[in-house]
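Field log, afternoon session.

UNIT: design team B
ACTIVITY: writing a sequence onto a fixed backbone
BACKBONE:
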């Protein structure tokens, strides 16, 4: 029993150290300015300035959509790029062959990046709303917090999945673009799904952020619907399992087949 507890504590220690390391590294990343400040500001101005219905419920839904959209961008370009940056920096071999499970390092860095990004984006959105004097409604702050935790977990799972693909292929930047912009159209975060053709709308059912948007908007307006939250967490678990399996294959290629390009 004590041995199991020591393993859990050691794993948590790796997660926390990796998260702190990633937050420290973000200070030198110019892209953080875009993800956390420029993009949410631009999205808010584009969505709110021409708005005719400025009711708190409508504004709140737009704010949640902007936050999730910025979070998705940072997940694809930031969290999922942890392994890609390790490869370009020449430290990927050490990361994948360390004593501890390398997935802990990737998950920890992903959590650190996701948490820092969503906090900074939240501060940016708050300042813009104060300048524009736009009201918002927060009927159930506790459930909103639960939803934000789910967002962090989902982003980390997606980061592990996409980050593993980044290591296998050298076309990570192209893959980022291919994943990012369709999400803007099909995720239902900024563009209502009713405006998306039915032939493409079904794709949104497999996007966890679509369901989290629905849950968060409902919780803010006073409607607690746990079905979207459960669907989002189910998809998150699927992302995590698939990402873990793919990451294990990456490690096997590194340690046994010697076919993975580490630099």
């Amino acid at each position: 029993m004590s041995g199991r507890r020591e393993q859990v504590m050691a794993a948590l220690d790796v997660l926390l150290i990796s998260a702190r390391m990633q937050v420290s590294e973000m200070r030198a990343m110019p892209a953080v300015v875009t993800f956390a400040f420029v993009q949410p500001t631009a999205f808010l101005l584009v969505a709110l300035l021409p708005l005719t219905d400025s009711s708190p419920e409508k504004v709140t839904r737009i704010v949640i959509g902007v936050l999730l959209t910025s979070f998705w961008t940072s997940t694809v370009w930031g969290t999922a790029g942890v392994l890609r940056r390790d490869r370009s920096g020449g430290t990927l071999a050490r990361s994948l062959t360390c004593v501890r499970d390398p997935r802990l390092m990737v998950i920890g860095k992903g959590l650190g990046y996701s948490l820092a990004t969503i906090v900074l984006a939240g501060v940016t959105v708050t300042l813009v709303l104060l300048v524009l004097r736009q009201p918002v409604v927060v009927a159930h702050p506790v459930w909103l917090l639960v939803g934000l935790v789910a967002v962090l977990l989902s982003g980390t799972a997606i980061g592990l999945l996409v980050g593993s693909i980044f290591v296998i292929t050298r076309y990570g930047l192209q893959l980022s673009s291919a994943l990012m912009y369709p999400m803007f159209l099909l995720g239902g975060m900024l563009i209502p799904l009713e405006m998306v053709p039915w032939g493409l709308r079904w794709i949104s059912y497999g996007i966890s952020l679509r369901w989290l948007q629905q849950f968060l908007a409902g919780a803010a307006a006073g409607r607690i619907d746990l079905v979207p939250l459960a669907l989002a967490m189910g998809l998150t678990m699927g992302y995590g399992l698939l990402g873990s399996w793919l990451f294990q294959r990456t490690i096997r290629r590194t340690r046994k087949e010697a076919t993975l390009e580490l630099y």
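LOG NOTE: The first helix runs from residue 2 to 25.
NEXT ACTIVITY: expression trials, pending approval
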